[in-house]
Amino acid sequence: MKSTNITAAKKYAKAMFEVLTDAKDLEDGYADLIELRKIFITNPKLIDILDDMRVSDDQKTSLLAPITKNASDFINNFLKVVASYRRFPDIITIIDQFQQLYEDDKKIVRAEVVSATELDNNQQDRLAKAFEKRVGAAKVIFDTKVDKSLIGGIVIKSSDVIIDGSVKTRINKVKELLLN
């Protein structure tokens, strides 16, 4: 994606965030946008069709009807603005930028956790609580992965923090000390 598209997406997201905050409708708007994002993620061709100038406005309205029929006024207005400024190719990026603003506002941190073995729910909960405290977050959302090459321990990566408690890294540090 071009940087100008990201810049535009940030502007749209900021405007939506401000509108929803002023209307005291941030939570509902956020939930609606996440659902809308799912629709466009699972139907990527829909974006291409809605951006195609050869497709008539009536056809586009017809394609959006299942989405707009039960949607909030906010979502319907958002889709109208996106259509009128031909921003359908950027719609997912706009929603992603909005989600980032929302999560920053709510002090939600996303992090990747890589472990040598699968973590159970209890382990994930304890780890989340400890990481929340460490980074000052109200909530942590983990994306967990297993990497057997770590041998043991875990690695946590978020946008601001990397914590490497893996056995593999400890072994490599000992090797480095012995070789130097």
Describe this protein's structure:
With 180 residues, this protein is α+β, with helices and mostly antiparallel strands. 62% of the residues lie in helices and 13% in strands. It has helices spanning 3-22, 26-42, 44-51, 57-68, 73-84, 91-105, 121-135, 167-179, and strands at 108-115, 139-146, 154-158, 162-164. A 4-stranded mixed β-sheet has the order 2-1-3-4. Strand 3 (154-158) and strand 4 form a beta hairpin.
**Strand-and-helix sequence, N→C?**
HHHHHHEHEEEH
Number of helices: 8
Helix content: 55-70%
Mean pLDDT: 94
How is the topology of this model organized?
Layout: H1 3-22, H2 26-42, H3 44-51, H4 57-68, H5 73-84, H6 91-105, E1 108-115, H7 121-135, E2 139-146, E3 154-158, E4 162-164, H8 167-179
Summarize the structure.
The protein is built from eight helices and four strands; from the N terminus they run H-H-H-H-H-H-E-H-E-E-E-H.
Brief descriptors of the model:
about 180 residues; alpha+beta
